[in-house]
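Pilot study result, target chain (316 residues):
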Amino acid sequence: MINPSNEPAKPKKIITIIPSGRLIESIPDTQPESDQRDSTSEPENSSIFQAIGVIAGTVDLKAKPHPTISIENRDYVLHHAPQKKLIFDFLKKQIRNSGSDYVRLMVYPRVIHFPPRDKPHVIGFQVLGFDNGSKSGLFADYQDFEFRFTGLWQFIPACQTPCISVFRNFTAERLDYIKQTETSRKVRFMKASHIPLLWKDAIVPPFRFNPLLPKEERGKPSFVEIKAKFLPHRNVFAFESLLGLPQEKPPKFLKASKDDKLAAFKEKKANIAASKGNKPKPKPQTKPVKKAQPKTQTKPVQPPNSPTPNTIPVKE
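Predicted structure:
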């Protein structure tokens, strides 16, 4: 598409989330003119993969092995990002200052699926920030349990409910990182989040992979942008409204190859076997041997041959 104004594209805003829940917007310096794209080239997709929202409940920071939040009498595990290890310390201080352990949290959903399709998934949340009472930023825009999901609308083998698959957004820095890191860490870094979603009368059907169809007839999943609601009583999310029209072509993202996944699996399996091999084997417990007791043979009591005093022999 030709830009009629012939103006250079504006730099994208970068949003930084801090523990208080406020969003700080900053505009990076523009790139050198030689690195900028030609204004006559087709603009890039401004959408990104994202799953973020607000939950509220009673937080237990002393729960083991991870802190939890209680929502409608159900406990959900809380996690923190590797670079946000102090988030729970800030949250603890907020609870102490407010005198209440009922908190609104800004979170990423974390969903774990298990190989059997009929086995229920497990939902947890990664904490990004908390509402300190100012109700600014995302806390002002979203009600409790509202989420923004942007991703691929499809079925996955491990879940009976269709999911929105949120992949790692592509950047040149991330590409350099995965080229230099080891396979297992690379696969873990590019792992997608598959969020189960109830969407009745969806504007586009969820994609279902069918290996029996010819490659040109299989189709591809649509990229959707929606607002959803978390339903604790059903342990799933439900569609609320569209935030944009579905797109056939998603934004650029990172995805681990099948070869890398297989190599990472073999590496993990080998590490588990090695760790088991290094553990000292328990000594076999031997039962004490009992000394054999000499057997005493008792002769059967024979009836007396002689007549008893009360019997009289009878002559034939």
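One observation from the pilot: The two ends are 138 Å apart (CA to CA). A full batch analysis is planned for the follow-on phase.
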